[in-house]
Amino acid sequence: MRTFRYERASGDEAAVAAMAASPGARYLGGGTNLVDLMKLGVESPDVLVDVSRLPHTSVEHTGPGGLLIGAALSNSDLAADHTVRTRYPVLSQALLAGASGQLRNAATVGGNLLQRTRCPYFQDPGKPCNKRQPGTGCPAREGVHRNLAVLGASEHCVATHPSDMAVALAALDAGVHVLSGAATRTIPVTELLRLPGDEPERDSVLRHGDLITHVELSAVPEAAHSLYRKVRDRASYSFALVSVAAALETEGGVVRRVRLALGGVAHRPWRARTAEERLLGEPATAEAFAHAVDAELAPAEPLRDNAFKVPLVRNVAVSALSDLAARQSDGTARLPEAR
Amino acid sequence: MEAPVHASPVTLYVNGTARELVVDNRTTVLDALREQLDLTGAKKGCDHGQCGACTVLVDGLRMNSCLLFAVARDGARITTVEGLADGPELHPLQEAFLERDAYQCGYCTPGQLCSAVGVLEEMAAGRPSAVTAPEHPSGQAVPAGDTEIRERMSGNLCRCGCYVNIVRAVDDAAGAQAGAGHGGSEGGAW
């Protein structure tokens, strides 16, 4: 590993200034991905700006029913938060479906969003990879790609975004607060992470030195009826093959509000807006869910060894929506008591 | 003495004792423990946060010490497997691992033990896991049992395949803890 200088940021502005001073610098949060990438030789920063002790570790209530989540909060703490478990169960469940207890204790909210793909070619500096070294090619297209993208990929990159949390945040239309130079802006999480296109080296729209300070959730009434469902090669502690974040509100058996995001299928969480639009006003039946999700997946372009993901994510989405519909029709609200 | 630009002075409170070190910034907590403090209980299995053999408690929370830079954890309170026993009195989890024969080669055991200490704290504090019912009240102790323990211990691999007995040992210790009517005392981070 290359040597580096270590700076502990004393505040947001100081952190941004430290990054601006060093083009090769990286922010350090929990380090669960970055430290590993440094060991692998994928990342070799000359300066680490430690933002893990910045005072962004709370979950604050904002306005009518929203939440402001600190970017340095651990994944474990966010998952255990009572309001999150009650009002946004899909988020708590997504966090708990990710990684291990040890990793969730260390990993931060901001770092979770900006973690890198686990594509085996990206993680191996001995191999070509357009994301790690633009212009060198993408061996994954013809090589090992069983767990790579089926939607929104480009000829340059077929990587998937590995986060579970981000899939839930995409379904919830979370906003990401970013300090950029001296200005703060809010970027919808669905626009923060991008498709690879001609610039697969860019996972997000952020520029060097941009600092995520908070994630904001607005009031989403139907999120009280939400869930996260993840399918993987083993029962626990594994990245998703596919995953589904879903929220549904029905009235008299008809879909009134629906949110659907798919994980493990693209370079970013895949918000299924086509399916959502088709479902509004439709009967909340497995058949209607299947038709809507099929329309969403129509543009899928699977590779040789990952075509299984298309029917898999379809079936998981249909079962998730069907379960949410059944819970509302029989009146079982599977949530902790509000307090 | 001023440390060079790529090294830093740090103080780690390891098993209750302040240890002052100068570390190369690249030094992980795991390497500081093993190479500078001669505490070789925590093991370097994969060195990539995948196997859990390096698990220690950092300010009461279980973490993979191979993924923590020591410089970033300056001031942290760290408990390793060497710090679990109280003098000649083994920790209840250590007793349970012996009683249940919860290991074969023993290489993963220090990480299993430290992780299990964290698991018992987390369950006593009512922290949910992926298999905890969504309607389980926040903050109310989560009952142990195979399903909870298997999920919560999934970050600790055992190549000898002693999982069945590890789960029994952790369940025994969880039962003893619940029977004693307290939520444990190792972490207190919540």
TrEMBL record, chain A:
Alphabetized InterPro entries for the sequence: CO_DH_flav_C (IPR005107), CO_DH_flav_C_dom_sf (IPR036683), Diverse_Substr_Oxidored (IPR051312), FAD-bd_PCMH (IPR016166), FAD-bd_PCMH-like_sf (IPR036318), FAD-bd_PCMH_sub1 (IPR016167), FAD-bd_PCMH_sub2 (IPR016169), Mopterin_DH_FAD-bd (IPR002346)
Alphabetized PROSITE patterns for the sequence: FAD_PCMH
Protein name: Xanthine dehydrogenase family protein subunit M
PANTHER family given in the database record: OXIDOREDUCTASE (PTHR42659:SF1), XANTHINE DEHYDROGENASE SUBUNIT C-RELATED (PTHR42659)
Pfam families: CO_deh_flav_C, FAD_binding_5
Key words of the record: Oxidoreductase
Domain FAD-binding PCMH-type residues, every copy: 1-222
TrEMBL record, chain B:
Species lineage: Bacteria, Bacillati, Actinomycetota, Actinomycetes, Kitasatosporales
UniProt-listed Pfam families: Fer2, Fer2_2
InterPro entries per record: 2Fe-2S-bd (IPR002888), 2Fe-2S-bd_dom_sf (IPR036884), 2Fe-2S_ferredoxin-like_sf (IPR036010), 2Fe-2S_ferredoxin-type (IPR001041), 2Fe2S_fd_BS (IPR006058), Aldehyde_Oxdr_Iron-Sulfur (IPR052914), Beta-grasp_dom_sf (IPR012675)
Protein name, UniProt field: 2Fe-2S iron-sulfur cluster binding domain-containing protein
UniProt cross-references to CDD domains, sorted A to Z: fer2
Gene3D superfamilies: 3.10.20.30, [2Fe-2S]-binding domain
Keywords, alphabetical: Iron, Metal-binding, Oxidoreductase
Record has Iron as a keyword: yes
Record keyword Metal-binding present: yes
Signal peptide region: none
UniProt organism field: Streptomyces lycii
Any coiled-coil regions, as ranges: none
Tree of life domain: Bacteria
Annotated ranges, domain 2Fe-2S ferredoxin-type: 8-84
